[in-house]
Amino acid sequence: MSRLITYGDIHGCCSELAQLRQKIKPAKNDIEVCVGDVITRGKDSIKTLRYLQSHNIKSVLGNHEDKIVRYLQHQESIKENPIVLDEDEQDIVVNLNAEDISYLKNMPLFMRFEKITILHGGLQNRQNLNKISKKSRAQILRLRFLDQDHNFVTFGKEDDKSIFWADIYNGGQGFVVYGHQNFNEVKINQHALGIDTGCVYGGKLSAAIFQEIKDEKFSIESVNADVR
């Protein structure tokens, strides 16, 4: 029987990922998937990318990968690239090889395993993953908070009346495992599970392990950030 193993935002914390996998001990037939943002901010983005590829670990697209991919696509044009990279992102881009670029460009927006849906940011109840507009795609990558009318709130514009999306998500697109918003501990809602526990900020790297993809029962394993 295959387990579904889902990893929170790695952000270049490759040593912690290796430690976490040592705790979990994935079998050959287990399915391993990241919730996106596997690169940037941490010290080992390129090493992480190649570790994922060498261990056949999949990842959905995070907003940080999306920025890199869009930058690379614009570079193929003769027009000036409208996307400005920071120093860390520039360093990543110049060190990508063809296999790395292919891995990034082939990250899907979401992955489904029967009742379980893996994506990076979040979902509004009115969104259907089978009918995604360009605007909805961008929101799914970045969603954290909704306003009182359940509309997308741009990062930094949230206030005391804002609603975290998972607190009102109705399960219409499956049980969602997501990252993007970091928590001290995994965030458990009726129809969603947030597993970004802020490893790159000195927190933990966490994984949710589903013994069967036919139901929503899971266990959590974590390792502390390596602060050396």
Automatic annotation (TrEMBL):
Cross-referenced InterPro entries: Ap4A_hydrolase, Calcineurin-like_PHP, Metallo-depent_PP-like
Segment forming the signal sequence: none
A Pfam family per the record: Metallophos
Source taxon at top rank: Bacteria
GO CC field: cytoplasm
Residue ranges annotated for the Calcineurin-like phosphoesterase domain, each copy included: 6-184
GO molecular function terms attached to this record: phosphatase activity
PANTHER family linked to this entry: METALLOPHOSPHOESTERASE, ZINC-DEPENDENT ENDOPOLYPHOSPHATASE
Protein name stated in the entry: Calcineurin-like phosphoesterase domain-containing protein
Source organism: Bathymodiolus thermophilus thioautotrophic gill symbiont
